[in-house]
Amino acid sequence: MAAPQPAPGRCAYFVARKKRFCKMLPAPGRRFCGEHGLQEEENGRKRVPCPLDPKHTVYEDQLQKHLKKCNSREKPKPVYFVRDINAGLEDVAEIPEKQVPISSLSKEELENLIIKLKKASNGLELCLEEQILSHQALQEALNDPKNGESAFKHLKQQASILGNMEKLHLLGPGRCFVEFGAGRGKLSHWVDIALQNVENVQFLLVERATTRFKVDGKHKRRDSIFERLQVDIQHLCLNKVPILEKKKLPVVGIGKHLCGAATDLALRCLVESYTTCRDGENEEPAPKRSRNDKTEVASNSSANNESNKDDCKPVAGIVIALCCHHKCDWRHYVGREFFKSVGLGPVEFHYFQRMSSWATCGMRETTIKASTSEESEDQTNDTEEHEQTFSKTESGSDTLQGILTVEERKEIGCLCKRLIDRGRTEYLQQRGYRAALQYYTESAVSLENVLLTAVPGPSLIPEPTM
User: Fold this and answer.
1) What is the pLDDT of residue 316?
2) CB distance 238 to 251 below 8 Å
3) Residues 32-43 pLDDT 10s
4) Cα distance between residue 439 and residue 452, in whole Å
5) With contact defined as beta carbons under 8 Å apart, do 441 and 139 qualify?
6) Which phi-psi region, left, alpha or beta, contains residue 343 (left: φ > 0; alpha: ψ -120 to 50)?
7) Disulfide check for 396: which of 260, 285, 362, 404 has CB 3.0–4.6 Å away?
8) How many CB atoms lie within 10 A of CB 59?
9) Ranges in the chain, pLDDT < 50
10) How many CA atoms lie within 13 A of 228 on its CB side?
């Protein structure tokens, strides 16, 4: 029997795992495609993996030339890139080197953690106020039968976010809306639709990844200005964004399902690095200081605040739908002072952010019935916007069946979420903002249904000049 041969005009590389030849097209005169070019030598020329991205290859004698134009090379940083400006202070000494997984904790250790959690949560509002609103800008889409169940759920959430923004008087002319974790830019799209007859509106869409099927391109011929900032929120200095430097419009920070630490980075970006640097646009941000330098920082900042009070403009508002508390990080978390004030630290935070997943995943019973329940279907739909990368030990595995019931795990997970969110509202309140948490949609629409809102308090609103 003759040995198998590749299809005419196809790559000659045999894929053992698939038991067939590669179906990619090689370049003219080549036997192998670009992916398998390592198998081929031409006139003694050898192909080697690119050191910047081993997924593609290059001729060894052209490597240096290739490195100068490779798409994977480090590109020049934009002017608004300031490394770790929103990262928070480094307290490496506080964080244990090895974090023991929840499944490895003894029954006594787990019970002690739960006691600490309930003590710190004493008096915490677990039943948040419902602010399930809507907005006329989305009524046509909400009534369109062509939209499937998943699209309808996202539209209901977007409508409620816009409704809450309208209630806080954040939808108006002369504003710059900064959408963090913008993705395709759907939230900004609907804000723009709601403001279609309003002048002088700008949108900044912050997303670190390259995104396909963006919707902001639909608005390029309209009066509103859309600009994408491809940068990690951790390194974003809003003061250096040219469009903000030029017009200096009041900023409204928005986000739909801003995962874990990204929420803390966005809050610090708006409340600290943007607000406090309005007076010194050409200055480099102050270097990070340790906790021992807090007195000096406080005295310097208070002096600067007095001398530049007229130049400092607070953020006009913040509206962020929260999610994925299990992805929070102690270094970036803005509520560390609150945690310390209730006798907690980085170790407890590590376990609480892991246990927070019990509120949405820990409630799943390990039975066939649970896997086909309506609740489970909702969670599947939710994964479109936030990756559910829980391990079995994080989401309440069978190792905890003898210690906690499903309902107890759900209650503890909710407590962890509310405690982490309370640290965020305390952070905003200490900086003069009126911050609140509310349910903005039903749990049947999204299990992550809490909205964080904040507007400047009286202390941040400048007094009118006579």
Assistant:
1) 94
2) yes
3) 887 777 666 665
4) 9
5) no
6) left
7) 362
8) 15
9) 279-311, 362-384, 387-399
10) 19
